[in-house]
Write a structure and sequence with these properties.
The complex is a heterodimer of chains A (399) and B (195). Chain A has 399 residues and is α/β, with parallel strands linked by helices. Chain A folds into two domains: 219 residues, Rossmann fold, CATH 3.40.50.970; 112 residues, Rossmann fold (3-Layer(aba) Sandwich). Helix content of chain A is 38%, strand content 18%. In chain A, the strands form four sheets. Chain A has a seven-stranded mixed β-sheet with strand order 4-3-5-6-8-7-14, with helices on both faces. In chain A, strands 11-13-12-15-16 form a five-stranded mixed β-sheet, sandwiched between helices. Chain A is globular, with a radius of gyration of 21 Å. The relative contact order of chain A is 0.12. With 195 residues, chain B is of the alpha/beta class. Chain B has a single domain, classed as 3-Layer(aba) Sandwich (Rossmann fold), CATH 3.40.50.1220. Chain B has a seven-stranded mixed β-sheet, with helices on both faces. In chain B, helix 1 crosses helix 6. Chain B is globular. Classes of the chains: A alpha/beta (399), B alpha/beta (195). Chains A and B meet through helix 10 of A and helix 5 of B.
Amino acid sequence: MDPKSLVGTFNKKGQKIVEPEYLLFEAPRTQHFMTGSEVVKEAIRRASIDVSIAYPITPQSEAAALVGELYVEGYVGEYFRGENEFAVMSECAGASFGGARVFTTTSGPGTLRAYENFPMWAGSRLPIVINVMVRGVNSPLSIQPDTLEIGMILETGMLIWHAETAQEFLDFLLASFIVAEEPDVHLPVAVCIDGFFVSHTKDMVMMPPADIALTPYDPYRSPVPCMDMEVPPIRMMRDPFVMKSNYISYATHASWQQEVRAACERSRKHTIRLIGGLIEEENADAEILIVSSGTAVAQGREAVRLLAEEGVDVGIVKIKTIRPFPHQEVRQALRNAKHIFVPEFNVAGWMAREIKACIPDNDRVYAGPHVAGGMTMPPEVIVEEIKKVLSGRKEAVHG
Amino acid sequence: MGNYRVLAGPEAFLPPSAACAGVVLPDPGQAHIHGEIFHEDVAMEEAAKRFLSAKVPTIFPGPMVLWNWNPKSAKKATAIKAMYDELKDHNPGALLIPMPDYRPKYPKINPEIEINPNHPNLTVWHNKIDVCMFVGVHCHQANLSLKIIRGGTNCYTIAMCAMAGHEDAMLSFRDATPDKIWKLVEVIKDVRKSL
């Protein structure tokens, strides 16, 4: 059944099924004061979820538990706790192969424990939405916010979006199901937020009403056949073509991977329509720009204000989608910048590397400041970094 | 769009996927030719010309139109057969070679009776196919196969896609319905008259 034919009907909870565009852009919204974890609950309440599978790990445990409450209330079709994160992501795959709309959450070490599943999801074109509430992944153990794990999932084939605020988080979650399930995309989406900074702090959120819900998933629009032991990708996992040593087997594998990346590229068109562009610019004509994603942008915005008080003109470019990376938009936005600062909540500086790889004259990029392991990034630290470079006291860090 | 054009090969040992080279899929009512967006009617005429000027025009119907799993697939299959009959009438060398499933087959498929998306070049090379159309093939499998064909053969590829279209074909329609396939049959007849 075409899910669009359900628009205007009511689900078992009495929610009216509406077009995604209505839910995202037209439905009247009311103001609520809530945490990022509570945002997950309210997004999932409106998302016609068939299956959600959970496993506790800080800081996503509360969100996962709140989705469990939705199951008890009857808003989610099936919900259970997996044996561990690897099992959770494998079980999510099974549910998605079976034609269900699937949502789960994870954080830090849980993300890494489950890691093998992410390229498998993408390669199998499973449109699972996973909320990644990022935290440190080092030893000694840290439960605090750190974006290193985003850098670790960059090449899994998943779409990766990074929300700055609770409001953006809500809108990204709702839009992610629609983009993920477009037949020319049909890939998993990791909707990332900075753990604690967004998950556990309260923020104003404009919320569409709870009595409407997204159109359900239609598995018959999948670009691969429904799961069957005789057809790819399942057949390929148990048969020649995985093991066969000849050119055409290799070429098929390579083309399969290319097609996943192609699908990621195709998501641009749908994503731009639903979340209003892959980047956001504020005063991007300034010679000095702060470019980053997530809450590093929020800190950068405050640094811009502090510098403006001293007469220093600085702009901001926020990157909303890490995969696909908005190469063209970033090149365009940074074309006139003389100094580009990339503050990040991780020691690796993966965002600075991404930016350096896509613009000309990349010695304009200063990879920093960096904090990690749960440290905050006071705006004054960003201001100090900019002042040091401008005064010639610090060389650009070449990555 | 970028400078990349989706052209008949052989293009490369491993050509890029057209989407990663900057080719964007058409919107409803449109089609693409070599990666450039045109009104669907323009693409219909171009597809007809390609078919009618080919030495071995071939239709590759996939599982979604070969197996009578819903009324729509049966209607599509009827239209596809009519298209093949028209091509065969114009050129006795025209072929209708099914893609019955996507299973890898070893030691190898019989290229005279089927095409497999994982090994499309065997069928294209063996039958010296210079223009082909994919229809009823799941999108992922179609893109995979179209790209392999572009990489290793000189075959001109056309996709009649029921979803959003295929950048990896040289010419692609989208939102294919039985009516749209019948429309292409009529355009082929009209172009044939004008030859």
